[in-house]
Amino acid sequence: MADKAHPQLHLRGVPEWNEWRRAHPDERPDLSGSRLAGLDLREANLAGLNLSGAQFAGANLAGVDLTRAVLVGADFTRGDLTRANLERAQLVAARLRRTNLTDANLRGAWMTNADLSRAILRRADLTRADLNGADLTFASVREATLTLADLRGAKYRGADFTGTDLTEVYPPNDADLPLPHKLRRGPPAARLSLTLSEDISVPEIVEILGALNAIHERLVGSSLKNPRIRIGMSGAPETSLARFPR
Questions:
Q1: Spatial CB neighbours of 69, under 8 Å, sequence gap ≥ 6
Q2: How far apart are CA 159 and CA 57, in angstroms?
């Protein structure tokens, strides 16, 4: 149940609310179950608060601070969370269907079983986010960051990952899992293939590795994003190395 011993956000407005929070930095009012649908809450300071089950459907939450907030089961359907800070927020089973999360910070957010269907996550930072079981059906995840994100059990039929680097998501790209085509491949990349015979001498291997080092140094200094050289034996998984031994 929501705690009433504070200015009521929906009646007093964001400026007074933010001022109250600055004056009472150690207080954490309980706003669970609050009905805030359709309100203009831009730039509101809601960091660290319990907002479980809160109703934000259609609300304008652009630039809001929800760092480490508890948002279990909260409803953000068709809301605006552009540029919102949701770092390490608990969004378990939250409803974010058709929500605009463009440029949002979702680093380390716990989004297990969240509904993100048809959400807009363009340029969102989902580094280390837990999306286990999340629904990303037809979501726009263009140019987003998903480094070390957990996508086990996630649904992403029709999702658009154009321009998103998916090379370090979990499960790994080489796992035998039903990942969508774009998720398996990541963004388009140039490829250089090198085929060697099996009966190659050690000095020849050293010479080849030295040449690959030189190529890699040139790539690092180029405009290519996260250049990699992959090496492996025929029939075995390739290994991606930042640098080969000299």
A1: 46, 47, 48, 49, 50, 51, 86, 89, 90
A2: 22
How is the chain classified by DSSP, letter by letter? ----SS--HHHH-HHHHHHHHHH-TT---B-TT-B-TT-B-TT-B-TT-B-TT-B-TT-B-TT-B-TT-B-TT-B-TT-B-TT-B-TT-B-TT-B-TT-B-TT-B-TT-B-TT-B-TT-B-TT-B-TT-B-TT-B-TT-B-TT-B-TT-B-TT-B-TT-B-TT-B-TT-BS-TTSSS---HHHHH-S----------S---HHHHHHHHHHHHHHHHHHHTSS-SS--EEE--TTS--EEES----
Q: What is the pLDDT of residues 102-135, one digit of tens each?
A: 999 999 999 999 999 999 999 999 999 999 999 9
Full-prediction pTM beyond 0.85? no
Question: 189-240, pLDDT tens digit by residue?
Answer: 455 556 665 666 767 766 777 677 667 666 666 666 556 665 555 444 444 4
What is the mean predicted confidence (pLDDT) over 40-60? Answer: 96
Tokens of 70: 């508890």
For residue 212, the one-letter residue type is: L
